[in-house]
Amino acid sequence: MAGSGELAGPVSLPGPAVSLLLVWMLLLSIGLQGIAMLEITQLVKRYGRNDPVLKGLDLTVEGNSVVSIVGASGAGKSTLLRCINRLIEPSSGSIKLNGDELSNLHGQALRQARRRIGMVFQGFNLIDRLTVMENVLAGRLGYVSFLQAWRRRFPQQDIERAFELMERVGIAQYANKRADELSGGERQRVGVVRALMQEPDILLADEPTASLDPVTSEQIMKLMHSLAHELSLPVLINIHNVAQARTYTERIVGLRHGHMIFDGSPAQFDKAALEEIYGGIEAPDETTASATAEEHHG
Ligand SMILES: Nc1ncnc2c1ncn2[C@@H]1O[C@H](COP(=O)(O)OP(=O)(O)OP(=O)(O)O)[C@@H](O)[C@H]1O
């Protein structure tokens, strides 16, 4: 007879138990998709001794939603994104990604957390002399060893994923071209793919279309919106173009002087909201924005 300390063989679950386990896992995964991915509480950012730029911001972004952050120049939009990915230090408050506190991380823990936050920049931030593929693979730098990165030896699965994503956004044919041989729209597609190569839990985009012509910028917004849904990825986009915010995002957050003064759907984003956010400060794309607001609500 086997002693009580002896290890038993592989446990075989009866059929009904397996089914129950599978149903439980399915429910869990559905449940997880619904939970908050990013939770910001009472975020304050002060540069030096100046007045705070963010004054106690609360924002929760759930999985699979595309949120635009609008506000006049200086409202604190970039500061907010830069606090989330910790390019700058929040002065106080909490930033949680999937329940993990980001605001007090340092060193290795911070580097690992940053892998989970994809970032798309206004100026693309590509390395011009490198190829498109090399720029895209830079999104994997947080996952490979220094030696692998230095020798540019990326795992085959990374290369396959890079091709898949480049195909998806229409730049696979440029894989071996230098980044500086591409148009602005193509370069931003490289920026988006590089961010997605990180397998991020959230994507942040800081004025991703501001350097692009109107048609190309619409294409990039449309692309980011589709990708967010395909990949069930929450996306936060700082944007000046209110008309595009209304068309390509499901939720609009309006900042003014570091306070959140609007949080609602594009349908709720009417002339009054526009006036409250920008009134007396600046009128970005006023014609388009007002026209669109009237179109929807007039
Ligand atoms: N590194 C810094 N040091 C000091 N002040 C800063 C710094 N970065 C930003 N600020 C100030 O913080 C305020 C908010 O800037 P921020 O860039 O977040 O605004 P924004 O809403 O993104 O503006 P824009 O739409 O023009 O990019 C501004 O008054 C700006 O001058």
Task: Decide which structural class fits the backbone.
Answer: alpha/beta
Small-molecule binders: adenosine-5'-triphosphate
C-alpha termini separation: 83 Å
Count of all domains: 2
H/E element order: HEEEHEEHEHHHHEHEHEEHH
Strand content: 15-25%
Average pLDDT: 85
Give helix % range.
40-55%
**The CATH C-level class name of the largest domain:** Alpha Beta
Number of E strands: 10
Overall 3D shape? globular
- CATH fold name of the largest domain: Rossmann fold
What is the topology?
Blueprint: H1 15-34, E1 36-45, E2 54-62, E3 66-70, H2 77-84, E4 92-97, E5 100-101, H3 107-115, E6 117-120, H4 132-137, H5 146-150, H6 156-169, H7 184-197, E7 202-206, H8 214-230, E8 235-238, H9 242-248, E9 251-256, E10 259-264, H10 271-278, H11 286-297
Parallel strand pairs: 3-8, 3-9, 6-7, 7-8
Antiparallel strand pairs: 1-2, 1-4, 4-5, 9-10
Bound molecules: adenosine-5'-triphosphate.
Question: Could you provide a short overview of the structure?
Answer:
By secondary structure, this protein is of the alpha/beta class. Helix content is 40%, strand content 19%.
Structure notes:
This protein is an alpha/beta fold and 298 residues long. The chain folds into 2 domains: 179 residues, 3-Layer(aba) Sandwich (Rossmann fold), CATH 3.40.50.300; 76 residues, no CATH class. Helices cover 40% and strands 19% of the residues. The chain contains 11 helices and 10 strands. It has a 6-stranded mixed β-sheet with strand order 6-7-8-3-9-10, sandwiched between helices. Helix 8 links the parallel strand 7 and strand 8. Helix 6 runs antiparallel to helix 7 and helix 7 packs parallel to helix 8. The N terminus and C terminus are likely disordered. Bound molecules: adenosine-5'-triphosphate.
